[in-house]
Amino acid sequence: MAFEMVGVVGLGTMGAGIAEVFARAGIQVAGVEADEQALARGRAHLERSTGRALDKGKLTPAEREEILARVTLTTSRADLRDADLVIEAIPERMDVKAELFAELDRLCKPSTILATNTSSLPVTALAAATGRPDRVVGMHFFNPAPVMGLVEVVGTVVTDPGVRAEVGDLAVRLGKTPVEVDDRAGFVVNRLLLPYLNHAVTLLDHGVAGRDDIDNAMKLGVGLPMGPFHLLDLIGLDTAYEIMNVLFDESRSDRHVPSPLLRSYVAAGLLGRKSGRGFYGDPGDGPQEKA
Ligand code: 3HC
């Protein structure tokens, strides 16, 4: 498939980043949001991210304009009719996502591949909401999408192997490395990463070490780009908590019990960068960039 035009539904941090990745690869993008306010946030995200690349001399002003011009922003899902692939990046609510997939199935041409960027919900259930389950896959990007080099290509028991392969080839065209994963909770990365992040919160909760010391230990001792608390703030504490719950639901293992401290932060609305404060963002930490 040529993948000349793709749709991205949901232009939050991940959706806007994914739209940018496609546009940078020369592909026309229809970016869909629920209302004008959400569209404006998506546009601002794209402008900020490409502006950062411009400031660093990684894009010329003309290249930046070309990338932005490739993204058409719209509130009408009907604009996705002729897309070769539509990727969904809306909040992680199964009922809303299933409704969206059923609608995309009705709207889009029969050959359109329907993909989800979900990090925690079963791709199989979304496929079952459509009349084309063989053309539904997970296409899981990592935050920040324009920077991280991986795409998990998630296939279900009914995914057409040819579709899976085409999506893998598309990921390569986007400059990413695809890995093929079956539809199991957390796929590969979150299944390994989230228990580690959750355990860092448990160490903090038990007073084994302080936030900054744990972050420094993992950055300097293991060579990670970010310590676990900075990374939790980037991912979003609500997202992290949700993924832990999904891992626990599938495994029923003590290893996957979400930390009570993580739950408290989420309940208090301290969600990380997206809310302005998480493990970092106290007045003493200086300003934290909102995603
Ligand atoms: N959007 C676009 N570009 C960004 C960006 C953003 N939000 N944040 C950073 N960048 C770019 C910068 O422009 C810079 O680009 P350049 O190399 O072309 O100049 C590059 O990334 C490096 O940025 P900085 O020099 O400003 O900062 P760092 O060197 O500290 O890197 C980082 C920032 C790339 C975020 C790095 O700290 C990192 O890799 N952190 C780990 C991120 C990670 O693990 N992500 C996966 C999370 S798990 C996930 O997403 C799954 C989900 O389901 C939960």
Which tags fit this structure?
oxidoreductase; 46% helix; 8-stranded mixed beta sheet; alpha/beta; 3-hydroxyacyl-CoA dehydrogenase; 11 helices; binds 3-hydroxybutanoyl-coenzyme A
Question: Span between N and C termini?
Answer: 33 Å
Proportion of residues in helical segments = 40-55%
How large is the share of residues in beta strands? 5-15%
**Main sheet attributes: strand count, strand direction, barrel closure:** 8 strands, mixed
Along the chain, the helix and strand elements come as EHEHHEEHEHEEHEHHHHH
Radius of gyration computed on alpha carbons: 19 Å
- The outline comes out as globular
Q: Residue ranges: pLDDT <50 for 5 or more in a row?
A: none
- Going by helix content, strand content and strand pairing, the class is alpha/beta
SS elements, strand count: 8
Number of helices: 11
**Small-molecule binders:** 3-hydroxybutanoyl-coenzyme A
- The overall average pLDDT, rounded, is 96
Strands of the widest sheet, in order across it, are 3-2-1-4-5-6-7-8
